[in-house]
């Protein structure tokens, strides 16, 4: 209405004689030549009792220009600005309520008539609003045309994708068959390679166990008669079975399966597996580091004093002892060295042979082609879904809000950064670090029936502590730019946001021809 008043000039109002506080539209009820009938029709009084500072009518209509009736109304003419009704109680109360000062005619307060100045400012504001509306609507028409063109392009692209989907599906199925056929000889060759390697591993392990058992047998066979006796087995107390630290004759006989002695083959087949984990080899460690490090549990022996020069008798005795030791060393065999443990590489499967590797390379190439085609099909299906959703989305009467679909807008306050992604979600994130909180995902248009596209509703956001899920109402305002102008939380977990956009600008009325300057509204 203000915009219409601004755009359509009116003529100067003709001064009509009427009682103080009566509007021009009601002046015909106040005829000096007739008694006055209260506007509620309940009483009639002589006209000279109108504005006599005494309330005769229950509706206060007989005192429009005084403060006698608390429920009466005083009309401010406010020439040059907007006329206004105020409560009769404010008449002559010392406060200037009418911009023309007519409400303080008898209070002693001098009110400056500021109606023309207020009218001028009001006109400037209305002109600015009208300019924003005109420019915004111009941009809105551009947005509508852009969406029409974009929608046609998207529909064409959708048709192309849907047509190409069948061809790509056939290609994927063909490559799947090729892949499966290439994987059959690959699997057979790899399985055969695996089988041979496992057989080699088993044979190598069995050989190592045979060597370990043979070494242990030689160590236990002290008299080297080719058999292990109970006494020889008892020399290894670590094989004790009852925990008393000694291997008794009965325990030894039990280990030998009831026999009194046992040859090497039987030892390997029946005994070695039972004692393998307990058996301690008699061969000294060959690691120089291990032999050079003193046993921390044994006390260190004191260094003996330097020996004195031996006498002739002592030299003869030493010579005899050395000869005896040499004789003994010639009779006893050298220490047995246990078989070396398996090399770390023995646990690693050897490379495939040339034929197997060729099968693997061919199958891998087929897999790569199939996976690439399958990935292309998935991407195409996702593009089709997105296009179908965007094309069918309700973007306003003429698609004017479509440009918001792939955009996000932010508003930073003292504490938070609010982010609005139209048709998707609303979130808030602490300004100085922290994870975002979902204030609602797109629900629907929620404006009144006559202006459906003026409000957006976002629902089912992150739940509040012992409260409902967060939700946001977005009010759309006319503007030349697209920007979030404000956000607030009027109720717990319910947010209100305002988004300025050209798409919300209504069509302005046509500009009237200029017929001269007028100061009044």
TrEMBL record:
Which pathway is this protein engaged in? Answer: Glycan metabolism; N-glycan metabolism
Question: One Pfam annotation, family name?
Answer: EF-hand_5
Molecular function via GO: calcium ion binding; kinase activity
Here the segments flagged for biased composition (Acidic residues) are: 311-329
Sequence ranges of Basic and acidic residues compositional bias: 182-198
- What SUPFAM superfamilies does this protein's entry cite? EF-hand (SSF47473), LDL receptor-like module (SSF57424), Mannose 6-phosphate receptor domain (SSF50911)
Compositional bias ranges of the Pro residues kind:
332-342
Taxonomically, the superkingdom here is: Eukaryota
Coiled coil spans: 144-178, 360-390
| GO terms for biological process, alphabetical | liver development; N-glycan processing
Specify where the region named Disordered lies, as residue ranges: 182-211, 285-352
Where is the MRH domain positioned along the sequence?
Answer: 406-507
Pinpoint the EF-hand domain residues.
Answer: 208-243
Q: Please tell me one Gene Ontology term that the record gives under cellular component.
A: glucosidase II complex
Residues of the signal peptide = none
Key words, A-Z: Calcium, Coiled coil, Disulfide bond, Endoplasmic reticulum, Glycoprotein, Kinase, Metal-binding, Phosphoprotein, Repeat, Signal, Transferase
| Biological role stated in the UniProt entry | Regulatory subunit of glucosidase II that cleaves sequentially the 2 innermost alpha-1,3-linked glucose residues from the Glc(2)Man(9)GlcNAc(2) oligosaccharide precursor of immature glycoproteins. Required for efficient PKD1/Polycystin-1 biogenesis and trafficking to the plasma membrane of the primary cilia.
Q: How does it assemble?
A: Heterodimer of a catalytic alpha subunit (GANAB) and a beta subunit (PRKCSH). Binds glycosylated PTPRC.
Name of the protein: Glucosidase 2 subunit beta
């Amino acid at each position: 209405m203000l915009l219409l008043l601004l755009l359509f000039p009116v003529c100067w109002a003709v001064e009509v004689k009427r009682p103080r506080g009566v509007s021009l539209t009601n002046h015909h009820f106040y005829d000096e030549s007739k008694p006055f009938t209260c506007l509620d029709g309940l009483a009639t009084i002589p006209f000279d009792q109108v504005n006599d500072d005494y309330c005769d009518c229950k509706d206060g209509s007989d005192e429009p220009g005084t403060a006698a009736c608390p429920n009466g109304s005083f009309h401010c003419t406010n020439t040059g600005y907007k006329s206004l009704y105020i409560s009769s109680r404010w008449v002559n109360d010392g406060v200037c309520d009418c911009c023309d000062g007519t409400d303080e005619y008898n209070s002693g307060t001098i009110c400056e008539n500021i109606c023309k100045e207020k009218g001028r400012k009001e006109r400037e504001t209305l002109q600015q609003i009208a300019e924003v509306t005109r420019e915004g609507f111009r941009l809105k028409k551009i947005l509508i045309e852009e969406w029409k063109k974009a929608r046609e392009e998207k529909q064409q692209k959708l048709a192309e994708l849907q047509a190409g989907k069948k061809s790509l599906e056939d290609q994927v199925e063909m490559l799947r068959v090729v892949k499966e056929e290439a994987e059959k000889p690959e699997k057979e060759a790899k399985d055969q390679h695996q089988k041979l390697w496992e057989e080699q591993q088993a044979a190598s392990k069995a050989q190592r166990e045979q060597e370990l058992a043979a070494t242990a047998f030689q160590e236990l066979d002290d008299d080297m008669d080719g058999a292990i006796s109970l006494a020889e087995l008892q020399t290894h107390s670590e094989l004790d079975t009852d925990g008393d630290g000694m291997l008794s004759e009965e325990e030894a006989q039990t280990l030998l399966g009831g026999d009194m002695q046992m040859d090497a083959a039987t030892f390997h087949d029946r005994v070695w597996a039972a004692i393998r984990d307990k058996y301690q080899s008699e061969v000294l460690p060959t690691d120089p580091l291990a032999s050079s490090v003193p046993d921390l549990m044994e006390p260190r022996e004191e260094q003996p004093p330097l020996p004195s020069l031996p006498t002739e008798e002592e030299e003869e005795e030493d010579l005899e002892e050395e000869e005896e030791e040499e004789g003994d060393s010639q009779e006893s065999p050298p220490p047995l060295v246990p078989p070396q443990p398996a090399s770390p590489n023995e646990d690693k499967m050897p490379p495939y042979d040339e034929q197997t590797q060729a099968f693997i390379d061919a199958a891998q190439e087929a897999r790569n082609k199939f996976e690439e085609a399958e990935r292309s099909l998935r991407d195409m299906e996702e593009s089709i879904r997105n296009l179908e959703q965007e094309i069918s989305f309700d973007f306003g009467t003429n698609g004017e809000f479509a440009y918001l679909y792939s955009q996000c807008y932010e508003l930073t306050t003292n504490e938070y950064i609010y982010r609005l992604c139209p048709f998707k979600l609303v979130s808030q994130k602490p300004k100085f670090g922290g994870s975002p909180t979902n204030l609602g995902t797109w629900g629907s248009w929620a404006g009144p029936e006559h202006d459906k596209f003026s409000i957006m509703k976002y629902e089912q956001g992150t739940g509040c502590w012992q409260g409902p899920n967060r939700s946001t109402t977005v009010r759309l305002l006319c503007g030349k730019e697209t920007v979030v102008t404000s956000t607030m939380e009027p109720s717990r977990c319910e947010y209100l946001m305002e988004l300025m956009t050209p798409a919300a600008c209504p069509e302005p009325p046509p500009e009237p021809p200029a017929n001269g300057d007028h100061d009044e509204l």
